[in-house]
Amino acid sequence: MLKSSFGVRKASALAAAFAMTVAGGAAHAQEAAQKELIWNLKEPVTEIARQIYDLHTLLLVICLVIFVAVFGVMFYSIFAHRKSKGHKPASFHESTTVEIVWTIVPFLIVIGMALPATKTVVAMKDTSNADVTIKATGYQWKWGYEYLDGEGEGINFLSTLVTPRNQIDKHKGEKGEAFGENYLVEVDNVVVVPVNKKVRVVTTANDVIHAWMVPEFGVKQDAIPGFVRDTWFKAEKVGTYRGQCAELCGKDHAFMPIVVEVKSEEDYSKWVQAKLEEMKAKQDDPTKEWTKEDLAARGEKVYNANCAACHQANGAGIAGAFPALAGSQMVLGPQAGQIDILLNGKGAGMPAWKQLSDVEIASVITYTRNAWANAGTGTDPVVQPKAVTAAR
Ligand code: HEC
Ligand SMILES: [Cu+2]
Known about the structure:
45% of the residues lie in helices and 15% in strands. The protein has helices at 2-24, 27-34, 36-39, 47-80, 96-125, 165-171, 265-282, 292-306, 308-311, 329-332, 335-344, 358-370, 385-391, and strands spanning 132-139, 142-149, 156-159, 191-194, 199-205, 210-214, 219-223, 229-233, 239-245, 258-263. The longest helix has 34 residues, at 47-80.
């Protein structure tokens, strides 16, 4: 079945190309062949994704055959045996034979569809013997990754959308940049995995339900706060694969894509080395006394990556939803209050930011106390990382 459906896949590409050729001239044929994916599921890169693809094709064909057969008989009967030609309707009310046939036949069809599907679903759940285990945590609105097991153990990072805001705003009808090639499916830190290795992805969430989905891998797993779910994939082709959060999770649901880079084993090892070194270099010393300038500069980055989505880059917030930090009594008051809200969150809207380091929290607080019109107007303009360490 695998071989023949490869044929089906090619045939459907050709059919799409042919249709486009007829509609728009030969010049478009090649483009259409490339655009095949728009009409169909994405080209599978794992065994599971291939099985899903084949099931999809198989079930569609079964549905088509049933459709043609049922409507064929119906239209033929209506046309060839119409009343005006003198036909009398047959009567088979309470016919046991008919009752049995129309129970048994659909039952067999359903069994015929469920059997191959169940096999794939069971295989999808088998996360045993993974080479690498990665935990993916959904946040409003970004993904956090932790390499828990296998080569790369200890690596962790946040992965945030990098599509410039003015490309997104253009979409709302405002002036802005043209859309980039990977509009809304590009991130700062991509998940890197080795080719031909079993990668187990453990999913959970920090706030609401998200879902980790990469179509080419045939992977889609809910990430539920307080629960741990898992899924797996074994990518067979080096390349970059893009997915999205697949569970409506609030205002920026469309802005938390997933990008996975599959590398050769050798390149993966190199990446792990480089990433571990980079993390070591970045490890800030939370006991050190920082200058206001260093904290504010660092804090601006933390702010734009984590806070600007709600409180806005200019600190003005959004009336009725997200309070302004520019001029806020809390931001201008004693530091303890702001450290507490960052560590523990507040109400339903303000998340806790425990996953940020002490230096990051201290720097983002210092930044908000010295940005916009806040500079020079509050108490405690500088908050040191050790104050955060003490409050944890
Ligand atoms: C998901 C949206 C969201 C994000 C992201 C967010 N906040 Fe908030 N924040 C809120 C909401 C909503 C409140 C109001 C909470 C309440 O009072 O119930 C709030 C309140 C605050 C307050 C208190 C303001 C006041 O005047 O009471 C501060 C300070 C604050 N946030 C700082 C930050 C910082 C710093 C970050 C980034 C690390 C951040 N927030 C990220 C939604 C968000
Ligand atoms: Cu989400």
